[in-house]
């Protein structure tokens, strides 16, 4: 009965948490939709100013970068850090058209006060660090903006999965502690039963010893009485 109650309680807590996560996801989706709009920008690379696009994403730097790396790895590309950027070379994907490019990504916190807002910067090179400007290829830059815009949804999904994973670990830990407590309780019940049995046996032994001591005392009194005769 206790296990059933606990299981039900855990289920209700998990259900409540999942509702909160889903509500947070909806709020984040609305926020992200209104918040995230990529823009043309410039970025410093190897002490030079290069054409880029950038976007503000309402998550910490590590979430934005890890979700980006995961996204690119699923496409079959492994990144390598270089001069402050995560670089994916020889990338061909439909989101950027039919060309093959080297993609450069950088994340940085917007400000000290806005640590939960990350600026994601993207540069595209045709190779050998020959970065492509909007004037060179306006269509490509529009595709770059679309790409980073959609990455906001990826960061949201990635963050949600982290929350679910963390809550699963917390739940598993809580269940493990409960099961351990149940086992301890069962051991204590066995010890209690054993102790109660030993107490009962001791009471019985006390009664027997009392009777024997009274018997021996009576014999002693009888012997002493014979002295006075």
**How would you write the strand order of the largest sheet?**
1-2-6-5-4-3
State the low-pLDDT regions, or none: none
Count of DSSP helices? Answer: 3
CATH-defined fold name of the domain at 9-167? TATA-Binding Protein
How many strands appear in the DSSP assignment?
6
Tell me what the CATH architecture of the domain at 9-167 is.
Answer: 2-Layer Sandwich
Biggest pleated-sheet summary: 6 strands, antiparallel
Q: What proportion strand?
A: 15-25%
Termini separation: 74 Å
Gyration radius over CA: 37 Å
Shape: rod-shaped
In terms of structural class, how would the helical and strand content be classed?
alpha+beta
Give the helices and strands as they follow along the chain. HEEHEEEEH
Report the average pLDDT across residues. 87
Bin the helical content. Answer: 55-70%
For the record, the CATH class of the domain at 9-167 is Alpha Beta
Topology:
Layout: H1 2-35, E1 39-45, E2 48-57, H2 61-74, E3 80-82, E4 85-91, E5 101-109, E6 118-125, H3 138-227
Explain how this protein is built.
With 229 residues, the protein is of the alpha+beta class. It has a domain at 9-167: 2-Layer Sandwich (TATA-Binding Protein). Helix content is 60%, strand content 19%. The protein has helices at residues 2-35, 61-74, 138-227; strands spanning 39-45, 48-57, 80-82, 85-91, 101-109, 118-125. Helix 1 (2-35) packs antiparallel against helix 3. The longest helix is centred in the last third of the chain and has 90 residues, at 138-227.
Summary of the model, kept short:
60% of the residues lie in helices and 19% in strands. Strand 3 and strand 4 form a beta hairpin. It is of the alpha+beta class and 229 residues long.
